[in-house]
Amino acid sequence: MALSNNTYSAPVTFILIGIPGMEESQRWLSFPLCSLYFIALVGNCIILFFIWTERSLHTPMYFFLSMLAVTDLGVSLTTLPTVLRIFCFHSGEITIEACLIQMFFVHCFAAMESGVLVAMAFDRCMAICEPLRYTSILTNSVLAKIGLLILTRGICVVFPIPFLTIRFPYCKTHLLSHSYCLHQDVIRLACADIKVNSIYGLTAVLFTKGFDSVFIIISYIVIIRAVLRITTTDARLKAFSTCISHICAVLIFYIPLIGLSVVHRFGAHSSPLVPVLMANVYLLLPPVLNPVIYSIKTKEIRTRILKTFQSNRIIQERSY
Predict the structure, then answer these.
(1) Which of 69, 288, 301, 312 stands the most exposed, by the fewest C-beta atoms within 10 Å?
(2) What is the pLDDT of residue 6?
(3) Which helix (H) or strand (E) holds 304?
């Protein structure tokens, strides 16, 4: 690997420190963190299982919900190994190669989740604005193309980042301030000009999450206009209630993301705990809350869960 300065060489390992200043007490956080990961993994698997096995849920809305669950599982499984090693086994060492691989998948799944949220906004827009043409517009082939586009965009946008990052010499401290590898966190350790990485990273964020947030806002402007044209109040509330779960998913994804981006770029003098906590919220909160929100707010999934529990209870009572 060619380096820009022969005096330095890439480090064998980085050190993930979890939460700065709390290294001695991190063991107490292992149980709640493991519980949150358990909820995220089980919750999203349940969503996928119900959508897969229940034919009445084989609709565009639930196709996109299954994609959201897959991206949430991807984020959770990507960050889980290093988080467990730090908080359960007190080992934060990670090779630069493993760090770059984790970085790629973290950012890739985040970009894909942003794309899925746009697709879900489009789905709600078509369901409310064009209810009679909804199924003819969102056919299986269209859904497959949307899914392929989301996957391709996520991979292509993030693919150059590891290669742009591995070329740097790292002569500063090897301590990373998160429980997993993020692009912004790794490049700050480089003793070279990181302008290209910074510009590309910002461009990638604008091209994915920036454009996506604009499209979501436009979709909801169209939705609100369509809802306001409905004559009865009950019908308006019923139409808009189908968007509540998606609105919650958008907020819990974009609010921590925006805060984390602002802190990384403009919060040089802020407490080191702020970006760490916001990064954990950004990557852990959506996988935990999305299946809970959709299970509570979506009647079909809620009914399916209740039927499953009732069936299990009947079987247990008969066994006694």
Answers:
(1) 312
(2) 44
(3) helix 299-319
Residue 151 to residue 115: CA distance in whole angstroms: 9
How many residues are given for the chain?
320
The kind and range of the H/E element at 101 are helix 96-129
Per-domain boundaries in the chain = 13-309
Kindly give the parts of the chain with pLDDT less than 50: 1-8, 10-11
Q: Kindly tell me the number of DSSP H helices and DSSP E strands found in the chain.
A: 13, 3
CB 17 within 8 A of CB 264: no
DSSP helix/strand/coil, 13: strand
List the structure tokens of 69: 């669950």
Residue 52, token pair as written in the block: 């897969």
Q: How far is CA 148 from the centre of its chain?
A: 18
* CATH entry, 13-309, from 1.20.1070.10, 3.40.50.970, 1.10.3720.10, 3.90.1150.10: 1.20.1070.10
CB contact set of 320 (below 8 Å; sequence gap of 6+): none
What is the model's pLDDT at position 61? Answer: 92
